[in-house]
Design goal:
about 10% strand, Rossmann fold, about 600 residues, 6-stranded mixed sheet, 20 helices, alpha/beta, ABC transporter transmembrane region fold, 2 domains
């Protein structure tokens, strides 16, 4: 086991330790279970030895002694059953509670990860780590924890009892152990790589399926069913291959370990018979020794049976702690408190940024937005428009320069405080499965029903809501397919309204709707933007004619800035963009 795996398993104790007293009590009861099980073969052999001795001496059978032994056997059997039940109950409680804590930590961690993490990782793979990997670990701990403890202690006690009965015969049982360990080590070394690949392939499959279900309508539209199915088959074939290799190789362990037990069983029976003839071993004790050989084999076979589960859990543990060890959004040691009355004065001061150090994107950008002004950012795809918003919200931090709000560098602000100043309406409207009212209230969880309705009226969506079944209590389905795209946009505008933001961000909010809905959304946005500093990203230049400041971006630079009329009069890049769109409309 490499250091990384060992470290991951050690960290599991941090989740078990809050329930350590239940854990230790469960282990103690497991030890009692093993002791009872170890004594049973020895006690079972006592009546046989007593009967043989009575017959050899031509004495009547000592039924009183046999009855006493039977009472002890019944007591051991009851003790074994009760301790086994209670230990299983306690360990199950510990595992379930610790895994609940682990899932909560992963959920909290995800909320602390930067946006850049989700830009570079498939959502399905992240979901797989939270569900499949945690479940694999939970099942392994629940199914194998007690059996492994019982197996190890069972082997120890069985070997100890064999030495107590006959030291030379005990060596046969002892020799079984290293042989089985060598076999296990060789097989685990071969199969572990495939278990790791299997978990990674499972994460890839979950990511692929999640993406395909999200874009199912698009796949149908472009007739990509066959191509999608082919890709799924490839991933499935890969997963099947890793699954076969890992299961087949780990499956060799049990028959090979069992072979050593059969050899030991034969040697014990033959050699034990010799010692009985010599008179150094009783028949009852030979019976007990043969049972102890099986008591050594049974737990070793049990461990080999659990090998696949344990190796899968080992791979899952690494994947779980990989996400828990991901760098979080860096928090300031001392955050500058926000002024009580934010005006919305925004300044970009020589800002530079790149996602990849080898490929500069935003370079030396500077501009000023006064409180209550509307600034529009336009330019071709890839110019850096959305990146500017990501920097403003501190989804990413600038490499050079500073972004200031009311004179305070945003890097010195607490991220939560900073983002509380903003309301956003994006091109991809996101609604979650709940009522329409709760989707609007998402912008302010303390909002009253009256405020929800008022926000809907401001966003020009109240009439639409009241025409729907159950009105504000209508449930949005999983993919929000029971409302149109334009209606989604209006609901997200209502959500922004209810949050009462100081600064508003509108990112391509009308790019995917028809002309009628565009006018409706524009009216709603005009109401929301009134008196607020607003940033608007738009491809349709006709929607930003009234902006106080228009920034024209190209290749990460602001190449022009001014209002609509001054930029048209300048006859530069903006005028070319505007005329090209106007020409397209004329042709239409």
């Amino acid at each position: 086991m490499n250091k990384r795996k060992l470290s991951s398993f050690k960290r599991l104790w941090t989740y078990l330790s809050p329930y350590r007293w239940l854990f230790f009590l469960g282990v103690f009861l497991t030890i009692l279970t093993v002791i009872c099980n170890a004594l049973l073969p020895f006690v079972t052999g006592l009546p046989t030895t007593e009967i043989i001795q009575n017959l050899a001496k031509h004495e009547p059978i000592n039924f009183a002694y046999i009855k006493q032994v039977l009472v002890v056997l019944v007591g051991l059997a009851i003790g074994y059953s009760v301790c086994q039940y209670l230990s299983a109950l306690l360990i199950t409680l510990v595992v379930q509670r610790s895994m609940k804590d682990l899932r909560e930590d992963i959920s909290k961690k995800i909320n602390r990860l930067p946006v850049s993490y989700f830009d570079t990782h498939q959502q399905g793979d992240v979901l797989s780590r939270m569900t499949n990997d945690v479940n694999a670990l939970m099942n392994a701990m629940q199914q194998s924890f007690i059996p492994i403890i019982s197996a190890i202690l069972g082997i120890v006690f069985a070997v100890g009892m064999m030495f107590y009965i006959h030291a030379k015969m005990a060596l046969i049982g002892v020799l079984m152990i290293p042989v089985a360990l060598i076999i296990s080590k060789v097989i685990v070394a071969k199969s572990q790589k495939y278990f790791q690949d299997q978990q990674n392939a499972l994460g890839e499959m979950n990511g692929f399926v999640q993406e395909q279900l999200t874009g199912f309508s698009v796949i149908k539209l472009f007739g990509r069913e066959e191509a999608t199915l082919t890709r799924f088959k490839d991933i499935s074939h890969e997963l099947s291959g890793y699954g076969f290799r890992s299961a087949f190789i780990s499956g060799l362990m049990m028959p090979l370990v069992a072979l050593t037990a059969y050899i030991a069983y034969i040697v014990t029976a033959v050699l034990g018979g010799f010692f009985v003839i010599q008179g150094s071993l009783t028949i009852g004790n030979l019976q007990a020794l043969i049972q102890y050989v099986w008591q050594i084999n049974a737990p070793m076979s049990q461990i080999t049976q659990l090998s696949a589960v344990l190796q899968s859990a080992s791979a899952s543990v690494e994947r779980i702690f990989e996400i828990l060890d991901e760098p979080e959004e860096v928090q300031n040691i001392t955050d500058v408190p926000l002024p009580e009355d934010i005006q919305g004065h925004v300044v970009f001061d020589q800002v530079s940024f790149s996602y990849d150090p080898e490929k500069p994107l935003i370079q030396q950008v500077s501009f000023e937005v006064k409180p209550g002004q509307t600034v529009a950012i336009v330019g071709p795809t890839g110019a850096g428009k959305t990146t500017m918003i990501n920097l403003l919200m501190r989804f990413y931090d600038v490499n050079e320069g500073a972004i200031k709000i009311d004179g305070i560098d945003t890097k010195k602000m607490n991220r939560s405080d900073l983002r509380s100043l903003f309301g956003m309406v994006l091109q991809d409207a996101w609604l979650y499965p709940d009522t329409i009212a709760e989707n609007i209230r998402f912008g302010n969880l303390e909002a009253t029903d009256y405020e929800v309705v008022d926000a809907a009226k401001t966003a020009n969506v109240d009439h639409f809501i009241r025409t729907m079944p159950n009105g504000y209590e209508m449930m949005i389905d999983q993919e929000a397919d029971n409302v149109s795209l334009g209606q989604k946009q209006l609901l997200t505008i209502a959500r922004a309204v209810i949050s009462n933001p100081k600064i508003l961000i509108l990112d391509e909010a009308t790019s995917s709707v028809d002309t009628r809905l565009e006018l409706l959304i524009q009216k709603a946005m005009a109401k929301v933007m009134k008196g607020r500093t607003s940033f608007v990203i738009a491809h349709r230049l006709s929607t930003i004619k009234d902006a106080d400041l228009i920034l024209v971006m190209k290749d990460g630079h602001i190449i022009e800035q001014g209002n609509h009329d001054s930029l048209l009069a300048a006859g530069g890049f903006y005028e070319q963009l505007y005329q090209s769109q106007f020409a397209e409309k004329t042709e239409e």
